[in-house]
Amino acid sequence: MIKVISISLENEMDLVLSHKRSMKVAERLGLTVATQTTFATAVSEIARTVIEHTDDGILDIGLEQSQTRYSLMATVTFNKDIRFTNADAGFYYAQKLVPGFDLAETEAENMITMKIGLPRSLKLDPLKIGILKKDFEDELPLNPYEEIKLRNMTLHRLASEKDEALRQSRLIDEKKNEFISIASHELKTPITVLKAYTQMAKAHKEPLNKHLQGLLTKIDVQSNKLLTLVQQLLDISKIENGNLQYNMKEVGFNDFLHAQVTIMRHILPHHEIDTDFCDDAQVMIDELRMEQVLANLLGNAAKYSERNTRISVTTTLSEEGKITICIRDQGRGMSAETTHSVFEKFYRAKDVLKSHTGLGMGLYITSKIINDHNGKIWVESTEGSGSAFHFTLPLSTAI
Amino acid sequence: MNTVSKRILIFDDDDDIQSICTFILEQDGWQVSVKGSCAGLIDHITAFNPSVILMDNWIPDEGGVVATQRIKSTEATKCIPVIYFSANSDIESLAKTAGADMFLPKPFDLSELIEIINKAYHIRQSVS
Known about the structure:
The complex is a heterodimer.
Chain A (H helix, E strand, L loop, with lengths): L1 E8 L2 H18 L3 H21 L3 E10 L2 E11 L9 H9 L2 E6 L3 E9 L8 H13 L5 H59 L7 H32 L7 E4 H15 L4 E5 L5 E4 L1 H17 L6 E9 L3 E8 L6 H6 L20 H11 L4 E6 L3 E9 L5
Parallel strand pairs in A: 7-9
Antiparallel strand pairs in A: 1-2, 2-3, 3-5, 4-5, 6-8, 9-10, 10-12, 11-12
Helix pairs in contact in A: 1-2, 2-3, 5-6, 6-10, 7-8, 8-10
Chain B lengths: L6 E5 L3 H13 L3 E5 L5 H8 L3 E5 L7 H10 L8 E5 L4 H8 L3 E4 L4 H18 L1
Parallel strand pairs in B: 1-2, 1-3, 3-4, 4-5
């Protein structure tokens, strides 16, 4: 069938609509008023019978071509559990009205088909039918009920489209995180192998010359960098899935910080790291995660400043029971725009995109870790003269 | 049972990990046997009679968790220490679920590898 109109049969108001629309289609085809009425009556009788039983019937009106002739056709589909017999007055009456009447009962649904053959004199062709279809699509609502019905349909469609879009984006997000998690795991295996072979080579019994030792050390350093990146990717996917977990312990902060700075002095031999600590205080932290924070902030301080410049680590106790840690460098500093966005995931300042490698993951993870410790992190920076990253940690109640 | 010789059975399907572990541990005086899957798991263990087992998380067919659980629920093998090793970041909980005695996250330092295996070996010695 070449469908021209479709109406869902929900209540009595749809009967009026079915009748009017059937009339209109028949009229537009150029049928006589008598034929228009006959067709419309048959359609609305069936529609009424269906509405009496269910509210999910569908009426379709259109044309069917058999060889060179066309028929005006209406179908009403409804739930397969509803059976009509000639005891249903409307069903019985409609059969008498139209020349072609058929009730098909299938697995999925029942369908009543009504047909009236159209005279050749109407000279229908695909072009004319196309115009007819288009006209009915553009037709304004017949009455306020149809208008509401159409709006309701549009809203339903929009709502389900939105739901679908949301579902899709969630799915994509899940897939992405799953991918990152699997990829990081897969990447770790070759790194394991690489690191092991390097260590084996370094531990070789025959003495290696200095140059070769140096090269092997470089390979080891780079594998460690690669490992950090993989770890960061994994952390990000964990943050997004909401399962970054912490193993909180109470520690004396000064000892912890001293140990970290000592390690970082080895890793960053080209910078001077000064410390100025306040009185010792107890904090509840995940030591491994806090190590990650300090390695990130000190690493950045060194990365974005010249060799042989100073990096200072200072701490202060505040009256509200917090300790503030400040890491200050004498590096290139940041623009106001960068200062604003530097903690965002995958953010990288335009001016360092070419000069400094990185993926923009470190500070995002750091800020997440600090937040999860109920602390705050912020940055003050002046372009050309350096940056100062501050973060706070609440003191544990033990003191 | 011969408790004197240091015998280790390694379950890992990665060729390089197999050869690295074999090389390092043989240097440390171990008799090493490697398996790329856990087919015939219990038979291999009883035949080789290892003093320590190293089990990868991602081992065909059944995976390290199930394999370790089987080792730990079989009378003849349950006393052999199992070291769980994996690149999975949830290794600690995996090892716990599996019922492994220790765990070693990948990547590891070679010295860590030797250290943990010897630790497991000494536990085994003191038990038997």
